[in-house]
Amino acid sequence: MTEYALYPESGPRRRTTMVHVLDLLGCIARRPTTEAALEAAPDAIRAYLRFLQRYGEAIRPEDDFTTVIAEHVMEGSWLGYGDPTPGFGPDLQPLSAEDLNVYLRRLAWMQADMLQLIRDLPREQLLAEPEGRGRSIYGILEHVAESHGVYLRYQVGKVDGLSQAIRDVRQGAEDLPAALTHLWQIASARLEVVTETERRQSVPHGQVTGPPTGPCAACSNISGSICWRFLNAWANP
User: Which spans in the chain are helix H?
Assistant: First the structure.
């Protein structure tokens, strides 16, 4: 039986918590408490497995599995929101070329699902802000784009065309799918040719510089979890 390791992040009071399933990079469960987030993790795993199955991976979402808490980060800033400053143990391991290809393929599938959801939305709906707090759909996607660019630069430095592609996303919602597609094509093309040195170099994370990490050990996890949160929020408003 498959066992999935869970990596929660929360403050010491165990309030707002995000649980990461690093074996399914980008799969997360976020709830107001640690207990609720852990309870939600199995459903999040099955949803992610159904997503992989839909794109052709040999997955059986209906099979039984178990979970275990592998590491709980409770020190640092901005905990519970997807970017724990200390990182998790697996984030500190160099990323193999094989794993990188898997993560990039799955991230591209998430991006394709996002584009399918927004492609025919009118401008007014993209820009409408929810009552109370929260960002518009356009604001969320702008954040997705900028986050992707920031973590890519951390890993590989300057990328030709990246800054202009992000500016194109910022310019507005009129041709947002095309702008996002262009940005992601630039980012993916650069990550597909990262060198072994780039995979092993230290990258800044929050206020610290950690040991060697693989490209997108943080980047793919954060970009993927942002995409996954968007897709889940859309499916479960």
Answer: 34-54, 97-118, 123-127, 137-156, 162-170, 176-191, 196-200, 219-235
The CATH number for 214's domain is 1.20.120.450
156 with 198: CB under 8 angstroms?
yes
Domain total for the chain? 2
Task: Supply the pTM of this predicted model.
Answer: 0.82
Cα distances (angstroms) measured from residue 222 to each of 30, 70, 131, 149, 153: 13, 19, 26, 12, 14
Q: Are 65 and 107 part of one and the same domain?
A: no
Residue 118 and residue 39 in one domain: no
In order of 26, 28, 81, 176, 216, the CA distances from 41 in angstroms are 12, 7, 15, 32, 22
Tell me, what's the pLDDT at 178?
92
Q: Are 161 and 186 in contact (CB under 8 A)?
A: yes
Domain extent, residue 17, equals: 2-89
Give pLDDT tens digits for 58-72: 999 999 999 999 999
- Label residue 88 by pLDDT band (50, 70, 90): confident
The Cβ of residue 61 has, within 10 Å, a number of other Cβ atoms equal to 15
